Amino acid sequence: MAASTGSIPSHIKAWVYNEYGNIEDTLKLDTNIAIPELKDDQVLIKVLAAALNPVDYKRALGLFKDTDSSFPTAPGYDVAGVVVKVGSNVKKFKVGDEVYGDINESAVKPKATGSLAEYTSAEEKVLAHKPSNLSFVEAASLPLAIITAYQGIERAQFSADKSILVLGGAGGVGSLVIQLAKQVFGASKVAATASTGKLELLRELGVDLPIDYTKENFEELPEKFDFVYDTVGQSERALKAVKEGGQVITIAGPATPPAIWFFLTSDGGVLEKLRPYLESGKVKAVLDPKSPLPFSKVIEAFAYLKTNRATGKLVIYPIP
């Protein structure tokens, strides 16, 4: 029997679109969306905060239309909130638990009702307990980006005696790659690119060699690296910055071979594994100065995200 708390509405507020196109043009606030049906392995979450990701506006353009859910679509992968109902097979969570996660195990097979809604559902396996020291805003900023960062570093079989260059070090994923490489994987040296005004942030995150991409071309530096993690879509240049036998991974494909184009698989187990680093403050959420933006400002938030100027993550909070 599913356990639940309080009165859960049958219809909810959500930002939705009913056709593919530019997300700023198609997204509308709908106050009468049916609440998601709960499967046995899922929990229902009262959404308190949601982060925006580039995948949201790429999906809205129809990039995954062959595998996408049906309209209406409420975007949003990252969620932080409170469990209000649990499916009959759920073991890890109970009503009242504070949780966070990327609700879509496969990025290209996303749910119809995402996190830009008052309630959303997610499988137990993609969620984790929210670290007690993190606000809901900080927690919402992390899942997709930190899992992408972690799994990409792991995919490269990175180890403690190796050096890494992060392209786009001040962005949502890049800022976490830097911290994980340093704090979790014990990188011997971390270099990263950013624009002039963001070099200080790179130093604060632990970067040994900050590179101002407005003033120098990273691939022309005499120093080469064991691993390049490309978050910006420059894999061809990245291949010139890697040592012989080194590896380039990009999350902004398509990749120039032998660089690898990498997609995450959402996994609450990664979040649980990283919990000690988050609770100790060794790895921190990085929020754009505009964060959080209120639920009413979702369209403006997407327009800003598309400029590629955000530092860290854009989070929507509070959600009614």
Describe the structure.
- With 320 residues, the protein is α/β, with parallel strands linked by helices.
- Helices cover 22% and strands 25% of the residues.
- The protein has 9 helices and 15 strands.
- Helix 4 crosses helix 5.
- The longest helix has 13 residues, at 143-155.
- It is globular and about 60 Å long.
- Pfam families: ADH_N, ADH_zinc_N_2.
- Residues 21-316 form the Enoyl reductase (ER) domain.
- InterPro entries: ADH-like_N (IPR013154), AOR-like (IPR044626), ER (IPR020843), GroES-like_sf (IPR011032), NAD(P)-bd_dom_sf (IPR036291), Quin_OxRdtase/zeta-crystal_CS (IPR002364).
Describe the SSE topology.
Blueprint: E1 3-4, E2 11-16, H1 23-26, E3 28-34, E4 42-51, H2 54-60, E5 78-86, E6 98-102, E7 119-123, E8 127-129, H3 136-140, H4 143-155, E9 163-167, H5 174-183, E10 189-194, H6 199-205, E11 209-212, E12 225-230, H7 235-238, E13 242-250, E14 260-261, H8 268-279, H9 298-305, E15 315-316
Parallel strand pairs: 9-10, 9-12, 10-11, 12-13, 13-14
Antiparallel strand pairs: 1-5, 2-3, 4-5, 4-7, 4-15, 5-6, 6-8
Helix pairs in contact: 4-5
Q: What does the radius of gyration come to?
A: 19 Å
- Average pLDDT works out at 97
Fraction of residues in helix: 10-25%
* Residue share in β-strands: 25-35%
Principal-axes shape call: globular
Protein structure class:
alpha/beta
What does the largest sheet look like? 7 strands, antiparallel
Stretches where pLDDT is under 50 for at least 5 consecutive residues are none
Intertermini distance:
28 Å
H and E string: EEHEEHEEEEHHEHEHEEHEEHHE
User: How many strands?
Assistant: 15
Number of helices: 9
